[in-house]
Design a protein that fits this description.
Spore Coat Polysaccharide Biosynthesis Protein SpsA, Chain A, Rossmann fold, 4 domains, six-stranded parallel sheet, 38% helix, 15% strand, hexosyltransferase activity, Glyco_trans_2-like, transferase
Length: 827
């Protein structure tokens, strides 16, 4: 038994010590879903259980300030875990105190440990940026490649190293401010290197608005370009933005300024903009509707062969349109081009912790107006995030080769306090509504590519062809009191929640109003953000369900927690606004199961998380009587309902089969996550002599195929699980290498397709006589019995199918949920 870490409950000790997820994956997941009380988990992983979080932070501070630290104090630390701990501290600082000192100390400590162990550095950008934020100039110069920048490559590291060193000498905010001329030389280096005219600035309170170049305005002729500039309550940066378009080397340009119904007091600025040139037109929206509605009005007025966008507080380099038009000339397949931008503040300071200073610039979009608008129609009329949707829709309709982004800094993108998107991003965290919107429109785009459906939004009936979260539409939730909200991990990889779409569809078909909330189970933690399964997105596209984040102001009758581990840690208080009448937790495995390595859960901690987040008692639906007794014995105070397996399967139309000349044996190991995967040794042990059987394996594409001649390996990205099971007479569902996460779903899905299942013994209490088990005897003997005795095979098939038709029927599941929505819960 591993030693406990003070303040860390046993189930998190099990997770930290199991090895199923890396510290980096956990750090990203903890920040992405705003899990609270998480820092001790990462401290344990960073120090192999030796130190608490405060102790590691103290060691890092001592090293930074030159206080003595004996070498043996660093021995328990390892670089990957310490880096992840530093990254988590950085993200937590964003969400609370905003002081990056501890994060900087920890990154320096992690770099020291990496040097000791001879392993690669990690999180270099965050390391450099937080040290600059706390004024540690020597550290920044020591660990960047551009202390004296001459050439900045297109490698991302080169750009943020250049930005950090240029910011050190920023004359308006730098730690070591240089003269304006010296700073300009450093700032202009990457522009000059790319053949772009250098910029000059003046020493004023808003130097951004003084930018000038010596490029020859109007020196290049060609088709008319219409640039639409939506604005609301503009500053004098609107004049800077408009001049930057009028001063383009591409001379044939019109500027369409659309005022999104600004309040009184901005008339003078609009008058000044109109006075700049007769190429500027001004139009006012009848009411405030957001930037994309304003853009659409401007595009409807555009006359140019090409149309583009410019934000009203940004600056386009005078060669921007010339360079983008040259791309059209080089590649006749193009219908749209974009460019990169330098992101900087009004005082020309570029480094913003957690952000890239050189980035893709969505408002630089320039496209062939008639081709794109004629096929796609206007922008989606959201309050936020519709830039990306439109750009990706162009690529979905015309092909990826029809859209290109120039790898040149052709804009200065001003970071302003009033930006609608400024508070939507933190390390590993995006506003949940943005994530929901992106997953929905990308699913729609996939259907555009594969099914050829109409790519206009709104469609011919005036409806959005995919669901959008109310927060981004600027509206309220149409249903603030659904019957049920299901909290699940909706990603394609985990098997534990892969039946949720069928459950939601059954509830909807019975007339219940169902919402969906998401979080990632910690045992399936990942650094990369993954979008939901296609079956769930299909339900949303057809209005069967919709996203209802835990931060949404809705009050469901029942919040159904689909997996106990989704509440292994509570969410931060300010991340929860949902107020359910009842919170019901489904428990399909014992709280503590197996020996290390294992994952586990503790009912009192789940109950405490429910009370803290929703101010409700937790109610429990155990899968078996044994699980129910274990929950009750743990000391919970909430209701433990009678046992019921809360799963649905649909029995195949013709599930019964007879074994042919050779038994077709399938081994199901389909999960994309180590915690649900069998060990290679276990798979090798299960593969019987292929001379006797036709053996096939279903597995994740990242896993190596079995090195056994004659065994067919099928990848989950090529064949659906149901199609695989339809090939098989018998399916073996092995035990995962990590105890506590048995593969229930593959077992019941195979049973519903008419297969005899030989399952992990951990499922015996759940499936009973509906399955056979790997501890019933040697696998080869079990297979021989089934092969030689058709009656035995048919009898076992019958038990499996009867179990699916009764215990796992949609009607039984809906009846159980109906009971919860129509009977009162307790506080």
């Amino acid at each position: 038994m591993s030693p406990q870490t003070p303040g860390l409950p046993p189930h998190l000790v099990d997770l930290a010590d199991s090895g199923v997820v890396s510290a980096a994956r956990l750090a990203a997941t903890l920040l992405r879903y705003e899990y609270a009380d998480s820092i001790e988990l990462l401290a344990r992983m960073a120090s192999r259980g030796t130190y608490t979080a405060d102790q590691i932070i103290g060691i890092a501070a001592d090293l930074t300030h030159g206080r003595p630290v004996v070498d043996r104090a660093l021995t328990p630390l390892h670089a990957p875990g310490t880096y992840a701990f530093a990254y988590l501290e950085l993200g937590l600082a964003f969400g609370s105190h905003g002081d990056f000192t501890a994060a900087a100390d920890l990154f320096a400590l992690a770099r020291k440990i990496a040097d000791r162990d001879g392993v690669p550095y990690e999180y270099d950008r965050q390391d450099v940026q937080v040290h600059l934020a706390v004024g540690r100039v020597d550290y920044v110069r020591q660990h960047t490649s551009h202390a004296n920048p001459d050439v900045v490559t297109n490698d991302a590291r080169s750009w943020y190293h250049w930005a950090a060193n240029t910011d050190i000498i920023n004359p308006f905010r730098g730690v070591e401010p240089a003269s304006l001329e010296t700073w300009q030389q450093a700032f202009n280096a990457p522009f000059i290197d790319r053949g772009l005219a250098p910029m000059t600035f003046e020493a004023t309170a808003t130097p951004f608005d003084t930018v000038r170049t010596n490029a020859a305005a109007g020196s290049v002729d060609g088709p008319l370009i219409s640039i639409v500039m939506p604005v609301y309550a503009p500053t004098r940066s609107l004049l800077t933005a408009a001049r930057s378009v009028l001063d383009q080397t591409w001379g044939n340009v019109e500027v369409i300024v659309v005022d999104d119904h600004s309040p009184e007091g901005h008339e003078d600025i609009f008058e000044e903009v109109r006075a700049l040139s007769d190429r500027v037109s001004y139009h006012r929206m009848p009411q405030n509707g957001g930037a994309y509605r304003a853009r659409n009005l401007g595009l409807s007025l555009a006359r140019g062969e090409l149309a583009g966008i410019q934000d009203g507080d940004d600056w386009s380099h005078p060669q921007r349109l010339e360079r983008q038009m040259a791309a059209f000339a080089r590649d006749k397949r193009l219908v749209a081009t974009l460019s990169k931008s330098i992101r900087l503040h009004t005082d020309l300071y570029m480094t913003r912790v957690g952000s890239l200073p050189f980035a893709h610039n969505a408002p630089s979009l320039l496209f062939k107006r008639e081709a794109v608008l004629g096929r796609l129609g206007p922008f989606d009329q959201m309050r936020k995030a519709a830039d990306t949707e439109y750009i990706e829709r162009i690529a979905a309709v015309f092909g990826q080769q029809a859209v290109t982004t120039l790898k040149e800094p052709l804009s200065l993108y001003q970071l302003t306090d009033g930006s609608l998107s400024r508070e939507d991003f933190r390390p590993s965290w995006h506003r949940p509504a943005r994530v929901s919107y992106h997953s929905a429109f990308r699913h729609w785009h996939h259907r555009i590519r594969t099914e050829g459906i109409e790519p206009r939004s709104p469609d011919a009936e005036g409806r959005r062809p995919f669901p959008a979260p109310p927060e981004l539409e600027g509206t309220t939730y149409p249903d603030t009191s659904p019957d049920v909200v299901v909290l699940t991990d909706p990603r394609p990889g985990p098997q534990s929640g892969s039946g949720v779409a069928g459950e939601i569809a059954a509830l909807h078909a019975d007339g219940l109003r169902v919402g969906l909330a998401r979080t990632d189970a910690l045992r399936f933690a990942s650094q990369k953000r993954h979008y939901p399964r296609a079956d769930l997105l299909d339900l949303m596209a057809h209005d069967v369900t919709s996203w209802m984040t835990l931060g949404a102001p809705v009050s469901p009758t029942v919040l159904l927690i689909r997996d106990v581990e989704l509440l292994a840690l509570p969410r931060s208080t300010d991340a929860v606004a949902m107020t359910p009448q009842r919170v019901v937790v489904i428990a399909d495995r014992l709280p503590s199961e197996g020996t290390a390595p294992r994952v586990s859960w503790e009912p009192p901690h789940i109950e405490a998380a429910v009370r803290r987040m929703f101010n409700r008692p937790a109610e429990w639906i155990p899968a078996t009587e044994e699980i129910g007794r274990a929950i009750w014995a743990s000391g919970v105070t909430g209701t433990v309902h009678p046992p019921r397996l809360m799963e649905i399967t649909t029995v195949a139309r013709f599930p019964r089969r007879r074994i042919g000349e050779r038994l077709v044996l399938g081994i199901a190991d389909p999960s994309a996550y180590p915690v649900e995967q069998a060990s290679p040794a276990e798979l090798a042990r299960l593969l019987p002599p292929v001379a006797h059987h036709d053996v096939r394996v279903l597995q994740d594409p990242t896993r190596p195929a079995p090195a056994v001649p004659g065994v067919l390996a099928f990848s989950t990205d090529i064949i659906a699980a149901s199609e695989f099971y339809d090939q098989c007479d018998v399916v073996v569902v092995p035990a995962p290498a990590v105890a506590g996460s048995a593969l229930l779903r593959p077992a019941v899905e195979a049973m519903a397709r008419g297969c005899v299942v030989i399952a992990d013994p951990a499922l015996r209490g759940v499936l009973g006589e509906a399955a056979l088990y790997l501890d019933d005897g040697p696998l080869e003997q079990l297979l021989d019995k089934l092969t030689t005795d058709p009656a035995l095979l048919a009898e076992q098939q019958g038990r499996s199918l009867a179990f699916c038709q009764t215990e796992l029927s949609a009607a039984a599941y809906v009846a159980a949920i109906r009971t919860l929505t129509t009977t009162g819960g307790s506080r």
